[in-house]
Design goal:
The chain has two helices and 29 strands. The chain has about 375 residues and is mainly β. Strands 2, 20, 21, 22, 23 and 24 form a six-stranded mixed sheet that branches. Strands 1-19-18-17-16 form a five-stranded mixed sheet, covered by helices on one side. Strands 3-29-28-27 form a four-stranded antiparallel sheet. A hairpin with a 3-residue loop joins β5 and β6. The N terminus is likely disordered.
Amino acid sequence: MKIIVFFLFMAFNMYSQSVFIVDNRKAKESAILLSSFASKIEYVSLETTSECLLRPSSRYYVTDKYIVAVSMFEAAYLFDRKTGRYIHQITRRGQAPGEFAFKCEDQCGLKNDILYINNDKYWEGIHIKTKKSMCKIRKPVSIYHKYNFISNPWPYRDSLFIGYVNNITGKIETKLVVFNSEGEVLKEFPNYVIYDHVGRDKPFFHGVYYEYGGDTYFKQYQGNDTIFLLKDYNLIPHVVFAWNEDQKRYQSQPAFSEKQIYMSYFVETKNYMIYDCQVNGPFVPKESYQCIYDKKTGCLQSTRKHSSGFIDDLDFLGEIHPVMATDTELIDVVPAEEWLDWKKKKPKMPINISVDFDSNPIIRIIHIKS
């Protein structure tokens, strides 16, 4: 707690940037209607071909023109956002130029339409449309091996990158680093959360970044009590979360302990902060719910104890469980079999989509009110 108070004190003295205190203990728990914050829903049925049979575990990124589907250890595919037409395979696992030796990195979006792939000692940025290699980024190294625990790079400024350093041993004193394409670390941000590592768990997650108002923000994927603003190479608290005592904060390690909370998406707009809470269970989340924070009123709503998703009162097609977010949109993935089930029960669908049981999914894009 002293650390948070110190950060807040520094933030108020260095910048006029306001710090939001989001107290999840005081959330109004109720069903949340989609119409309360969303203006419309867009549907994109992804074309199914023998070259792009998508797995249920695929991850999706949405831009203004394209949708990218990523099977992390296999390949990445490009689709047209307007029609769902399959365009091409962006990259795949292999040894040829433009292919990856290990995996496609987890990302929080496609800044500049670039997908990053992991090739052991370096990351490579592949342009999703042209498939050209746009950059190669040597992974930072140190004699203490602490930089080995960076999962994904994020473009920052002046051709630099930032990376989250996983505290995999419990004793790593660096949280975030700024580095160049040669892997030279130019700035370190300290990590104050030191813990006694027990068991065999080795927490290794991607850093979560988003852009808002021309600035870059960062948070950890698992363990969420602070979202930081990166400003003039300083790490400034922007959002501080408070949780119930039974929902262990990220200081409680190991990272896979039950009741810890992680967010699979987070989006901030002028009016709202919208996110989900996934509560760790033995193998799958034991609890899942959605939250929306009104930045003007300070009111926090949560679907906890009511539903796991938002209630679709626009097109009346079940609950919505976003898996990803853009700057102004929430992304939900609807399996083809679920769409067919809705089609049997509903006389008139919001859009005429022809799918089979084993077709690729329908991407449901929720537009947040401006």
